[in-house]
Specification:
118 residues; four-stranded antiparallel β-sheet; seven-stranded mixed β-sheet; single chain; 0% helix; globular; 54% strand; mainly beta
Length: 118
């Protein structure tokens, strides 16, 4: 099992920055391959924001490239999402995800709200 706890969400003005954190704990942390951030706005489907794998290879949604940076600290079992130049359309609940080809399913955090005012 893996437990994921997100933090760092909040209310920020357009153009501002936030840093999200996701701390992982559990009995199978050693087998995590990818960790990522997804978001879901009201009335919309959940979408990938950024993902990072064990080799620190990253991938970003086109809408956040150049503004968001994902990173991980393996010693702390934590993944971060640095969000700069935030826009109102970034407003959503942001979810952390952990996954592995060895698992039958991925794991999700409870989500953290990010609201960007114009």
């Amino acid at each position: 099992q893996v437990q994921l706890v997100e933090s760092g969400g909040g209310l920020v003005q357009a153009g501002g920055s936030l840093r999200l954190s996701c701390a992982a704990s559990g009995s199978i942390l050693f087998s995590i391959n990818t960790m990522g951030w997804y978001r879901q706005a009201p009335g919309e489907q959940r979408e990938l924001v950024a993902i990072i794998n064990r080799g620190d290879i990253t991938n970003y949604a086109d809408s956040v490239k150049g503004r968001f940076t994902i990173s991980r600290d393996n010693a702390k079992n934590t993944v971060y999402l640095q969000m700069n130049s935030l826009k109102p359309e970034d407003t959503a609940v942001y979810y952390c995800n952990a996954n592995s080809p060895l698992w039958s399913r991925g794991y999700w955090g409870q989500g953290t709200q990010v609201t960007v005012s114009s």
